[in-house]
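Quick question, first post here. What does this chain look like in 3D?
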Amino acid sequence: MIVHQIFGIFGDEMSELFKKQQIKTKKWVQKNGYTYKLWDKKKCLNLISKYPEFRDMYMNTRNEVMKVDIARFLILYHEGGLYLDMDVEPKIKKLKNYEWACDGYKNAKTGREEINMEILQSVKGNPLNLEFIRYQKKQIEEKSKNKIYDKWKGRYVLQTTGPRSLARFLKENKITPYTYRSNNATKYNNKLTLNETGKEDFITLRGCTWL
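> Answer (accepted):
Ran it through. C-alpha cells below.
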C-alpha cells in the first residue's frame, strides 16, 4: 500500500500543524509496512504531462487548491493506494483492500451524512478516478459561466473540484462507496470544534490554507 500526500503546489513553507500530522502519518505508515510518498509541484506536473486530456484544465484552475483536488485522483489512478490531506491523522489500525473508498462524516449542524475527499483509497487503474476528473472538468466549465461564483470563491472550489462535486458525481452515477469515518471539524466563533465520537478511522484538523 502506498500512502500519498501532496504539498507544495501552493505555499512553500509547511505549517507546524502539517509537520505534526505528517510525522504521525509516517509513523503509522512504518508501523503497517506501507510506503510513504510526498508529491510536490514538480512531481504533480510530471504526472499531469502523462495525461494531456487534463493538462489545460489543471494548468488553468482559478484556485491553486483545485490542482490538488485534481491531482489526488490522478495519483490514485496512476499508482493506486491511499491519499491523505496534510491535516489528517490516521486512527485506524490497518486498512482494508477496497476497490475505491472515501471518507464520510455526520454534519454537526444538520445531522446529515456527508461525503468528503480528504481520505481516498483506490486500486491502480480504477476508471472511477478518471471519470470523476472528467466530471470536475465539466463542472468547471458550467460553474465558471455563473457570475455568482466570482464572489463565492470557496463554494466555487467545493462545487467544481471539491467534495460537493464528488457527492453529486457519486449520486448521479448511483455509486455507493465504502466510507471511512472521519470527524466534522468545524469552526464556531473562530474556535475549532473537532466533533469526535471516538469511532473515527481518521481525524481531520481543518488546516485550511486555501481560502
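The chain has one domain: 2-204.
The longest helix spans residues 16-32.
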